[in-house]
Amino acid sequence: MSSTTVITNIATLVTNDPSSGDGSPLGLVRDAAVVIVGDRIAWTGESSKAPATDNRVDARGRTVLPGFVDSHSHLVFAGDRTEEFNARMSGRGYTAGGIRTTVAATRAATDEELEANLTRHLAEALRQGTTTFETKSGYGLTVADEARALRLAAAHTDEVTYLGAHIVSPDFADDPAGYVALVTGEMLDACAPHARWIDVFCEKGAFDGDQARAILTAGRAKGLHPRIHANQLSYGPGVQLAVELDAASADHCTHLTDADVDALANGDTVATLLPGAEFSTRAAWPDARRLLDAGVTVALSTDCNPGSSFTSSVPFCIALAVRDMGMTPDEAVWSSTAGGAAALRRTDIGRLTPGARADLTLLDAPSHVHLAYRPGVPLVSEVWRRGVRVVRQGPVAG
Ligand SMILES: [Zn+2]
């Protein structure tokens, strides 16, 4: 028998089940309890009605929400781009070319160095409430280096994405077609066993619409499902290609035509917004309000990477989305939990409903609104993953 645990005295419980609690999309239950059996949620409801269990944890009036689902990150890398950031903040624009700096450092790193860096950033994200993350290759750009990145990532998450098409490898500067042939051929064969997804940076200076279609179609033939870096730095074909290929997600969506928004509203592709990138490059924000008003499913993620968005903090992204992108606090919390799960086509995470994975975050606050209301404050006090408390913050007794 699995042990049973009840967390009681929860001021606000976010279930993401509209049939629970207040009937809103967040399914808010006040004065709530959650029962965990093994690694799953078994029951949610009012604290006074909670069934008897083996163990009892008092939330002491804190908020409980599903662990964040960060559906877009780039965590297998080496090196540092502090100087590039510093220069950019002194007035220089960002172009896709900066990725080459990280490619050189990543190729030069040992497996142990990459693993240590990945583990450090995952621990950092976990402390901030992220219980599921997707991560990509894309800083190797050789057959061996891309396969190595995916192998290292796959030891930590099921949500691994092959991004050999991040930029054209510097080794193929004069032969982009040759690089696309590699990405769709030998590199794909080496990478597909380690990945669930295939991604491409569809952008001027990276890959155009025809190249992106060829790369994603080749990946799909090897059993990988598409997602796209689309319409980040300029208007382009990425979003419509994502919908056409039934990609799980079109990521960034910063420059959208009305036709792009219509396509997203009428397809099953989630629009994943990554405001850390606009923050860290002083770029115009994606218009979340426009997408939400059109009926598009929106996810919110960090894009954690050393060049254009070096934050692992979903709470920070929530604060930006509410302050600058027209999202309500409820929408931003939904997008960073249930929305992230939708962007990964998962139904077992991003919600606290019977049968879902017992991945949850406790906030030292009476409601989830405080994630935006108290920006920069480390409100995450506990994190549970698969029914086990893995983070417990607090001052050292002394
Ligand atoms: Zn990215």
From TrEMBL:
Tell me what reaction this enzyme catalyses.
4-imidazolone-5-propanoate + H2O = N-formimidoyl-L-glutamate
Q: Where does Fe(3+) bind?
A: 72, 74, 229, 303
Its EC number(s)? 3.5.2.7
Q: Give the residue spans that cross the bilayer.
A: none
One GO CC term on file: cytoplasm
Q: What InterPro entries would the database entry show?
A: Amidohydro-rel, HutI, Metal-dep_hydrolase_composite, Metal_Hydrolase
Q: Name one Pfam family in it.
A: Amidohydro_1
Name where it's found: Cytoplasm
- Residue ranges of every copy of the Amidohydrolase-related domain listed in the record: 250-368
Q: Which UniProt keywords apply?
A: Cytoplasm, Histidine metabolism, Hydrolase, Iron, Metal-binding, Zinc
Any GO MF annotation of the entry: imidazolonepropionase activity
| Cofactor, free-text remark | Binds 1 zinc or iron ion per subunit.
Q: Required cofactors, per record? A: Zn(2+); Fe(3+)
Q: Which residues bind 4-imidazolone-5-propanoate?
A: 81, 139, 166, 232, 308
Quote the record's binding site residues for Zn(2+).
Answer: 72, 74, 229, 303
Pathway(s): Amino-acid degradation; L-histidine degradation into L-glutamate; N-formimidoyl-L-glutamate from L-histidine: step 3/3
Q: Which BP terms does GO give this entry?
A: L-histidine catabolic process to glutamate and formamide
Instruction: Give the binding site residues for N-formimidoyl-L-glutamate.
Output: 139, 305, 307
Would you identify the family this protein belongs to, as annotated? Belongs to the metallo-dependent hydrolases superfamily. HutI family.
**Function according to Swiss-Prot or TrEMBL:** Catalyzes the hydrolytic cleavage of the carbon-nitrogen bond in imidazolone-5-propanoate to yield N-formimidoyl-L-glutamate. It is the third step in the universal histidine degradation pathway.
Q: What is this protein called?
A: Imidazolonepropionase
